[in-house]
Amino acid sequence: MRCDLIEGARLTATVPGLTERSEPEQPTDSAALPPPPALLARPRRVVFEQPLVLASGSSLSGYELVYETYGELNAQRSNAVLICHALNASHHVAGVYAHEPDHRGWWDNMVGPGKPVDTNRFFVIGVNNLGSCFGSTGPMTRDPLTGRRYGPDFPVLTVEDWVHSQARLADALGIERFAAVMGGSLGGMQALAWSTLYAQRVAHCVVIASTPQLSAQNIAFNEVARRAILTDPDFHDGRFYDYGVTPKRGLMVARMIGHITYQAGDVMAQKFGRELINQRLQYDYTFDIEFQIERYLRYQSDKFSQYFDANTYLLITRVLDYFDPAAAFGGDLSAALASATADFLVISFTSDWRFTSARSREIVQALLANRRRVTYGEIDAPHGHDAFLLDDARYHALVRAYFDRVAATVTALPAGAISP
Amino acid sequence: MSAPADRGSANRLVGHGGGPLRPDLQQVAAWIGHGTRVLDLGCGDGALLDWLARERGCSGYGVEIDDAQVLACTTRGVDVIQQNIEQGLDMFGRRQFEFVVLSMAIMATQHTERVVREMGRIGHEAIISFPNFGHWRHVWSLVLGRMPMSTAMPFEWYNTPNLHLATILDFENFLHTLGMTIVDAAFLDERGRPVTLMPAKRASTAIYRFRPDPAAAPDSGAVGIRAIQV
Prior knowledge:
The complex is a heterodimer of chains A (420) and B (230).
Chain A: E1 2-5, H1 19-22, E2 44-48, E3 52-53, E4 59-60, E5 63-70, E6 80-84, E7 111-112, E8 117-118, E9 123-127, H2 159-172, E10 180-184, H3 186-197, E11 204-208, H4 216-230, H5 248-262, H6 265-271, H7 292-307, H8 310-322, H9 333-336, E12 343-349, H10 357-369, E13 374-379, H11 393-411
Parallel strand pairs in A: 6-9, 6-10, 7-8, 10-11, 11-12, 12-13
Antiparallel strand pairs in A: 1-2, 2-5, 3-4, 5-9
Chain B: H1 4-10, H2 23-31, E1 37-41, H3 47-56, E2 59-64, H4 67-75, E3 80-82, E4 97-103, H5 112-122, E5 123-131, H6 136-143, H7 168-177, E6 180-188, H8 199-202, E7 205-212
Parallel strand pairs in B: 1-2, 1-4, 2-3, 4-5
Antiparallel strand pairs in B: 5-7, 6-7
Helix pairs in contact in B: 1-2
């Protein structure tokens, strides 16, 4: 395998629904900005030449992963933390790029020097998943056998496939065991899968705003999003690259649907209410934007459609649909998690109606039945599913306190070197 | 009754920060065996579980609703499940713990009967401590025409979180009605010292250790009730 540094890679990931950060560009006058963060991110690429057999039975002959690391790996290689991303984020978890000082990582409020996951203590890894569109092998990549972009020929993946691909990255970086594997939403599913597929390689598992499986309603929303893309005339059966177009309208609708489910109705009401663009109703049969919420959704989805790949959107919503570790155990989640040996931190947000607290409690219940050590925080935050990406003092304090415990086990590893 | 040695050792119990465990928690800790699994309902800052883990090799979880207390538990390395004890206990399985503890919180529960039945389902044994409303000072206070206040119940009538106050006799009858078998009981005065003479009148705090009687359905008769001196 080969590793190399990517210079000036195309890196435009943003996080779902994080409007506070995705408004128009910040002023670039450095005097007007807070002091620049110490953390400079550098994306790297690793090439795996051995085939990866997938859950579907098909395989990838080889693949590439783009990743970033923050902090230093200690001599015992015991302080590594893997951060798994959700639907439309990337390996750019924290910090900024030298050439893009405004492009902060999607979990920069969580990961960095002095942050809850403190890069002064931990060696943190962000990796772009297979099938995504930020540099790792995916539908936009050219198939080495045909020279053509994979498009619809890219194999359908699962959370477990991702975890196996990430394990090879851990091998490449010389990490036998992670101090913690952590993720929110779909990232939490990967962390959960890590805890059973590679139980011996995970000391702590942090699962935030996640679920042990999608509900019928969750799948229904994904289906609407997929139909929007698939029925866009510019989709061309996934071969739109060849036509020099993108199914922009479909992607926009898909993004709007997702965006609505990431937010709590109360917050949307508070932010936009029924506020109009103009002073009065237009009674206009063009159904152009009249309400502020419409303008917001159009703006967000338009921006999204300019950088996100439609095939990736289809693929990753399917990854979400398929995740169901209990299925192989007759629906018994306790049995599915029986092989886990990690300690767990599970966090949910009471206003999250996409992956509700009840779904996180299912995970906790299964861990309790297996006598795993688990701490569960049910944060009464108003921001819905998006809360896992936002600043909330209680949430961040809990993660920080838990990672203090993780750090204590890391430094206690060498015999006789117990910290006070 | 537990061995005298246990009672003696209770005096040496101290919390993580060097401060002493609350006297009722010292009694609870004295009853809990080495290496057992413990669920502490309304665990506060996790002092009891922390002590049990370090001194007795126990494992288990706290259940706590308050954000600051959840953080305090996590900071001291105690695993905590953030739930309301009146709604969130169905995630715990039958007989999942050797001991289920509810210390100085039962009077603030709304569905008290359900909570205690749940404790009987989840634990092999349960331990409950509560302020004894039948303490003579309380009675005297009522004679003088005022609602009782004490160290264990430091609230005015209009701002108290306590919904379900009970005397020692009330509580024993309650356990009996639920088909619980009383294994042991301890009584403390306002300074946390043991009370043996007329505890129903002289105890400020009562602590009961009991277990669900698998043979006895609720209301099936006087099984295992232990009469105390009144």
